[in-house]
Design goal:
The complex is a heterodimer of chains A (about 140) and B (about 260). Chain A has about 140 residues and is mainly α. Helix content of chain A is about 75%, strand content about 0%. Chain B has three helices and twelve strands. The chains are: A mainly alpha (about 140), B alpha+beta (about 260). Chains A and B meet through helix 3 and helix 4 of A and helix 1, helix 2 and helix 3 of B.
């Protein structure tokens, strides 16, 4: 049921991906809260759907999302779960994605969506926790 | 990393790399076919927002048309009243501008708008809304302009009482006053005062305000007429600039003068 909710949310927020990157927040949330296999598959599908918007670069987002998700899955056991470390990890994860995609496909760097995504990370994470687990935060 | 996880990861990476190395044509065909199926829900959402956006654009277009028709109507009325062998066919073009700021020291006296020199805005350009006259451009920068409104203390404009043809000067003196109206002139509360067209700045027929009060004072010649402005400047979020007054002169024989 939770998996279905993730896909519904992905579909709802995909059109607004260019103004606020909610799919990356969803992926980050899934990496830290769900099964490893689902996390990688979800990342692949999110990247795949984004790639459909830009056919000449088909496969770039898919590859970047899968690599980043798997890297974070590998590192998550070493990351102490607290508000600060979670936030810092997300910022690094998100900026890494932005930077790699900028290098790979020369996607334009715009500060407003980046700032908006970072600012809304915690509120969206809390809402997701509340929606899926019935609590505002989990430790 | 478990063995299953490793296989899954490697499979997805391989698949991504295969996508990357597809030919341009294959990528386009694949993306087009898959997007029609996989992005169907996304397209519905996007189309809904596009529909809303189109509706908003359509509303703005209709507002512009209303303003243009009002101005043309005023010009046509003017022509009908004129006894001349020559008339001008006037076409107005309007440019919508958003209000991006106000002068904090004179909140309704000056409006900062988001159009400037780059959109061919010039000093003394008339500023209106669908309700009537707002003012004129006082200062122009490359990307924004400042408009002086009818609520600014120094604002003055030539006005016309359409029913009687009485001319006067509309001034802002704390209230909007239609000045130099003779005590014998028949002006009633609720009557409309329009721009007279007797200036190079404003075309004729733009509503300035309606008569709110006529003061009886000990003056042998004139009576001050107080107006309610047609536009509530403090509620404005956007305005229209009359950007072009393309005129084509046409000479026609006047039947009455023959």
């Amino acid at each position: 049921m939770r998996y279905l909710v993730y896909f519904v949310l992905l579909y709802i927020f995909l059109p607004f991906n260019f103004s606020i990157d909610i799919p990356i927040i969803l992926i980050f949330f899934i990496i830290f809260n769900e099964d490893e296999r689902f996390a990688v598959i979800f990342s692949f599908l999110a990247g795949f759907l984004i790639d459909l918007y830009n056919p000449p670069m088909f496969g770039v987002n898919t590859l970047v999302y899968v690599l980043l998700a798997q890297s974070l899955l590998y590192l998550r056991k070493y990351i102490l779960q607290s508000l600060l470390t979670t936030f810092v990890t997300f910022v690094i994860f998100y900026l890494a994605k932005i930077f790699i995609l900028h290098l790979a496909i020369m996607s334009p760097l715009s500060t407003t969506p980046i700032a908006l995504t970072i600012i809304t990370f915690f509120p969206i994470s809390w809402i997701l926790h509340r929606l899926l687990y019935g609590v505002w935060t989990r430790t | 990393m478990s063995r299953r996880q490793l296989i899954l990861f490697l499979s997805l990476v391989t698949l991504s790399i295969i996508f990357l190395f597809l030919t341009e044509h294959a990528k386009l065909v694949l993306a087009t076919k898959l997007s029609s199926v996989l992005l169907f829900p996304v397209k519905i959402t996007t189309e809904f927002f596009d529909f809303l956006s189109v509706s908003r654009t359509r509303t703005e277009e209709l507002e512009i048309t209303i303003n243009q028709l009002r101005l043309e109507n005023a010009e046509l009325k003017k022509k009908v009243l004129q006894d001349t062998t020559e008339f001008q066919e006037t076409k107005f073009t309007l440019l919508k501008a958003q209000i991006i700021g106000r002068d904090p020291s004179n909140i309704n006296g000056f409006l900062h708008i988001d159009k400037g020199e780059q959109q061919n805005v010039y000093v003394n350009q008339p500023v209106i809304t669908t309700s009537g006259l707002v003012g004129k451009i006082k200062f122009v920068n490359a990307h924004y302009s400042i408009a002086e409104t009818v609520e600014n203390q120094r604002f003055a404009i030539s006005g016309l009482h359409e029913k009687t043809g009485v001319h006067g000067i509309v001034k802002q003196r704390g209230n909007l006053v239609f000045d130099y109206v003779r005590i014998t002139d028949e002006i009633n509360i609720g009557d409309s005062i329009y721009t007279s067209g007797m200036s190079e700045i404003f075309p004729k027929g733009i509503l300035i305000g309606t008569v709110q009060k006529i003061q009886q004072i000990d003056d042998l010649f004139f009576k001050p007429v107080y107006l309610t402005p047609s536009v509530q400047v403090n509620r404005l979020t956007s305005v229209y600039l009359i950007v072009g007054k393309g005129t084509e002169k046409k000479v026609e024989l006047n039947q009455s003068s023959e």
